[in-house]
Amino acid sequence: DETEWRKCFARRLYKKMVMKGITQEVLAWKTGISQSTLSSYISGQVMPGVFKLQKISKVLGCDINELIDFD
Known about the structure:
By secondary structure, the protein is mainly alpha-helical. The protein has five helices and no strands. The radius of gyration is 11 Å and the shape is globular.
C-alpha cells in the first residue's frame, strides 16, 4: 500500500545518504529542497515528486530507480 511504499522509499533514501556521508543539511543545500521537506521524506510521511526525486538522486549519485523500485 501507499504507506508501506513511502516507508520503503524513506529507508532507501536514508541508507543512500549514510552510504554517501551526506547529511540532511547538505542534501537540502545541494538540492534546494528545504530541510523540513527532506525530513518529511526521510520519515516516510511524504513522497517527493519526480522533479525533486531527480534532484535527490543526482546529489546522491544514484538512479531514481534505486530509490523507488520496490519489486
